[in-house]
């Protein structure tokens, strides 16, 4: 396996501004790419903490805890490229459609995001233009590069994490696989993760994989590319050791799946979110 070189990024001008995206280079001809929409909790200069107590930015509302370490570990072991979002989902959520009402949240799991209310059209467009669209364009460019270099439809894997308890309700799954109507990769990965019987593997839990306009809808479903969205319970990957364990576990399974020629087939499935 090749070891990815140093990150490349799409830096915004101005001190204190996080990158809209970070690219971990890898072997584009391998036919796989990793995505991490909620990898970081950074906010641009001038936005402060969006009116939140700084401790709130360490919660799941600001980013997917543990996902950056898992994604980096997987990219290193698989030798494939990865695109990580560089800003907090509280600024604007890159895993939503531009017309989604939760694109810029004003209330999230008990936290009032005062810096997002009121929000005029100019500020909304500023966040789309400076942060959301550069990340989405970086994903599109990297996916296209994998398709060109490998000569086949790329396998797109999106890494997320979920909090063990949400609004007082426990979430028992160790890991869950989200999908819309294309279950080609999901079923294979589900079988592999469930094989030893030591994991509780969710199927579209605690979220549904059919979300119109989200990252997988735009870059995988609409292109007919094989894909899966993986949700890992945050307490399992909050430490470096936990993240490394899950990176190895997922890399082993996905590495095997990626060798299958029947996976790398462009096939369009209708989205349930379009019905």
What does the model show?
This protein has 6 helices and 12 strands. The chain has 275 residues and is α/β, with parallel strands linked by helices. The chain has an 8-stranded mixed beta sheet with strand order 1-2-4-3-7-12-10-11, sandwiched between helices. A two-stranded antiparallel ribbon has the order 5-6. A two-stranded antiparallel ribbon has the order 8-9. Helix 3 links the parallel strand 10 and strand 11. Helix 1 crosses helix 6 and helix 3 packs across helix 6. The longest helix has 30 residues. The radius of gyration is 18 Å and the shape is globular. The termini are far apart.
Strand order of the largest sheet: 1-2-4-3-7-12-10-11
Contiguous helical run count? 6
Instruction: Give me the oligomer status.
Output: single chain
pLDDT < 50 runs, ≥5 residues: 1-5
Approximate shape: globular
Order of helices and strands: EEEHEEEHEEEEHEHEHH
Helix content: 25-40%
Tell me the number of strands: 12
Q: Determine Rg (CA atoms, Å).
A: 18 Å
Biggest sheet layout? 8 strands, mixed
Beta-strand percentage range: 15-25%
Overall pLDDT:
95
The N- to C-terminal Cα distance equals: 42 Å
Structural class: alpha/beta
Secondary structure elements and pairings:
Blueprint: E1 8-9, E2 21-24, E3 32-36, H1 67-78, E4 82-85, E5 107-108, E6 111-112, H2 121-150, E7 155-162, E8 165-166, E9 169-170, E10 175-178, H3 184-194, E11 201-203, H4 215-221, E12 227-233, H5 234-237, H6 240-258
Helix pairs in contact: 1-6, 3-6
């Amino acid at each position: 396996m090749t070891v990815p070189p140093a990150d490349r990024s799409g830096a915004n001008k101005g001190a204190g501004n996080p990158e809209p995206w970070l690219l971990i280079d890898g072997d584009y001809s391998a036919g796989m790419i990793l995505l991490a929409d909620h990898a970081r909790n950074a906010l641009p200069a001038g936005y402060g903490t969006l009116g939140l107590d700084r401790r709130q930015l360490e919660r799941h509302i600001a980013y997917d805890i543990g996902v950056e370490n898992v994604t980096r570990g997987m990219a290193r072991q698989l030798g494939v490229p990865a695109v990580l979002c560089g800003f907090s989902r509280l600024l604007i959520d890159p895993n939503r459609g531009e017309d989604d009402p939760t694109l810029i949240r004003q209330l999230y799991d008990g936290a009032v995001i005062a810096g997002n209310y009121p929000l005029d059209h100019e500020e909304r467009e500023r966040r789309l233009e400076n942060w959301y669209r550069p990340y989405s364009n970086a994903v599109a460019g990297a996916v296209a590069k994998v398709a060109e270099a490998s000569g086949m439809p790329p396998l797109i894997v999106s890494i997320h994490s979920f909090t063990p308890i949400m609004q007082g309700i426990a979430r028992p799954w160790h890991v869950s696989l989200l999908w819309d109507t294309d279950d080609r990769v999901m079923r294979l990965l589900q079988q592999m993760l469930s094989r030893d019987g030591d994991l509780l593997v969710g199927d579209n839990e605690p979220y549904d994989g059919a979300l119109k306009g989200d990252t997988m809808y735009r870059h995988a479903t609409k292109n007919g590319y094989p894909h899966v969205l993986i949700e890992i319970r945050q307490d399992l990957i909050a430490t470096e050791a936990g993240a490394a364990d899950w990176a190895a576990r997922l890399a082993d399974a996905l590495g095997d799946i990626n060798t299958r020629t029947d996976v790398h087939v462009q096939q369009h499935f209708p989205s349930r979110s379009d019905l």
